[in-house]
C-alpha cells in the first residue's frame, strides 16, 4: 500500500510526539543519575549536569555499605517473587471457572466488576487487618493485594478466546477441569501470564503505602521503596551517612546518596523488562486480531 504525503507527514508527527514523550519521561531519571554520579561539592555548588565533570561512585559505595539497605533490597526481591507467584495463582483460579456455565455466573461477574469501582477505603482495611492480627506481619504485604480484578478480567477474556472445541475434546477423553487448565489453557496463556506477572511484580516492587500503614513497628519487613521514602523524607538515614565527614562535614552530601539510593532501587526492576519483552508485546495484543 502506497502512503500519501499527508499520511507520511502524520506518521512523522506521531513519531516525533512519541520521542518527545520518551525524552520527558527519561528526564527525571537522567537528572537522578547525574546527581548520583556527581561529586558532593558539585551538588553543594549547584554544578550538576547530565555529564558530571568529575564523576564519582562514592554515593553508590555508601549505599552498598549500608547493611539495612541491602537487607531491604533482598527482602523486597523475595517478597516480589512470592507475591507475583501467589497473585498469578489466585488470578488463574478466579478467571478459569468463569468460562464455564455456572449457576450465578452473571452475579459473580457483577460482583467482580463492582469491586473495581467501589472499595471500603483505607480505614476499614486497617481495621480489618487489625482484627485479623495481621498488623506488623509480612502477610499484610501479601494477602490484601494478592488479586487484581482488572487482571482477572484480562485473563478471563483470553480464556474466552481459546476455542471451546479444545476443552470439549479433552473432556471427551476424560480430562477433568484441572487437567484442562494445566494441559490446554496454561500453555496457551504464556504471553498473557508473562504480562500479568510483570504488572504484579512492578506493582509490588514499587509499593510502599501498605508497609507504611501496616508495618509501623516492624522495620525489618520494610520494602525497599519504604526505605527509600524514609531516606528522602529524612525520617531515617542510612547508617553510613552518619559517619564523620559525610553527613557532618558536607551538609548537602546526602543528596548524592539519595540519588544513588533511587537508582539502586530502580535498576533491578528495569532489568526484568527485557526478559519479558517478547511475551509482554504478545500479551498486550492478545485478542486484537481474530482469525
List its traits.
291 residues; 13 helices; globular
Would you kindly provide a written description of the structure presented here, covering whatever features stand out?
- The chain has 291 residues and is mostly helical.
- It has helices at 5-37, 40-44, 58-65, 67-95, 105-117, 122-131, 149-161, 164-172, 177-188, 190-206, 209-214, 224-232, 254-284.
- Helix 12 (224-232) packs antiparallel against helix 13 (254-284).
- The radius of gyration is 24 Å and the shape is globular.
- The relative contact order is 0.13.
- Mean pLDDT is 79; it is low at 235-253 and 287-291.
Quick synopsis:
The chain has 291 residues and is mainly alpha-helical. The chain is built from 13 helices and no strands. It has a domain at 67-237: MetI-like (MetI-like fold).
Mean pLDDT across all residues, rounded?
79
Q: Round the Cα radius of gyration to an integer and report it.
A: 24 Å
Task: Give helix % range.
Answer: 55-70%
* CATH superfamily (homologous) name of the domain at 67-237: MetI-like
Question: Which geometry do the CA atoms define?
Answer: globular
Number of helices: 13
Q: What is the end-to-end distance?
A: 22 Å
Q: What composes the largest sheet?
A: none
Strand content: under 5%
Low-confidence parts = 235-253, 287-291
Amino acid at each position: 500500500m502506497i502512503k500519501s504525503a499527508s499520511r507520511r507527514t502524520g506518521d512523522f508527527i506521531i513519531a516525533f510526539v512519541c520521542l518527545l514523550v520518551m525524552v520527558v519521561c527519561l528526564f527525571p531519571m537522567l537528572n537522578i543519575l547525574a546527581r548520583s554520579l556527581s561529586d558532593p561539592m558539585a551538588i553543594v555548588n549547584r554544578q550538576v549536569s547530565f555529564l558530571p565533570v568529575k564523576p564519582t561512585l562514592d554515593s553508590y559505595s555508601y549505599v552498598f555499605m549500608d547493611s539495612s539497605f541491602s537487607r531491604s533490597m533482598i527482602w523486597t526481591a523475595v517478597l516480589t517473587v512470592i507475591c507475583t507467584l501467589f497473585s498469578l495463582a489466585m488470578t488463574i483460579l478466579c478467571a478459569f471457572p468463569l468460562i464455564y456455565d455456572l449457576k450465578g455466573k452473571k452475579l459473580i461477574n457483577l460482583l467482580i466488576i463492582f469491586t473495581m469501582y467501589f472499595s471500603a477505603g483505607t480505614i476499614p482495611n486497617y481495621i480489618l487487618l487489625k482484627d485479623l492480627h495481621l498488623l506488623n506481619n509480612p502477610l499484610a504485604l501479601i494477602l490484601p493485594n494478592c488479586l487484581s480484578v482488572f487482571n482477572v478480567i484480562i485473563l478471563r477474556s483470553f480464556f474466552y478466546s481459546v476455542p471451546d472445541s479444545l476443552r470439549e475434546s479433552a473432556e471427551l477423553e476424560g480430562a477433568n477441569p484441572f487437567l484442562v487448565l494445566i494441559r490446554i489453557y496454561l500453555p496457551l496463556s504464556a504471553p498473557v501470564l508473562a504480562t500479568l506477572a510483570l504488572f504484579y511484580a512492578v506493582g509490588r516492587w514499587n509499593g510502599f503505602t501498605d508497609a507504611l500503614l501496616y508495618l509501623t513497628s516492624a522495620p525489618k519487613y520494610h520494602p525497599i521503596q519504604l526505605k527509600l521514602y524514609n531516606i528522602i523524607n529524612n525520617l531515617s538515614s542510612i547508617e553510613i551517612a552518619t559517619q564523620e565527614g559525610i553527613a557532618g562535614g558536607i551538609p548537602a552530601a546526602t543528596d548524592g546518596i539519595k540519588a544513588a539510593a533511587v537508582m539502586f532501587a530502580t535498576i533491578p526492576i528495569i532489568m526484568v523488562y527485557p526478559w519479558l519483552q517478547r511475551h509482554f508485546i504478545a500479551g498486550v495484543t492478545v485478542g486484537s486480531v481474530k482469525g
